[in-house]
Predict the 3D structure of the following.
Amino acid sequence: MAPRATRRDRIVPESRLAEVFERITQETKIMQQNMGRAPLGRDEARLDVQARLKDQLILAPLTRGGNLPFRRLCADFGANVTYSEMAYARMLMKDNLVGRRERSRLYRAPNEQCFGLQIATNVISEGVFAGKLARESGIDFIDLNCG
């Protein structure tokens, strides 16, 4: 029987975090340049998000109630911005049934115009992994819960 992997074996080592952050920053700049606009500063990004959300009907984030069929129904009734159920970053990293179930929270209904992922974590490397996974899945924004 193989030895059980520890929590430390399943997360990105602290020594690689700077490399991961730099790569994400570079990829974000390239994506924004390809979209025809310069990368936004922190204040500009905040104003951009505020402008996108102004006068929109937003489905409040729900920990275990905002599943895909419910969000699809809410979007049909006019919700412009929707959130996934809360996903636990540590569970997103697992390669088993629990991990697959947690990753199913990243699925988006075709009628969801602006879709955000709630992520719960208190470990930086797990949050970075979850953010990268969200970006690759086409999530529009992240609601990060570190509490």
In short: Residues 18-55 form one domain. The chain has two domains: 18-55, 57-147.
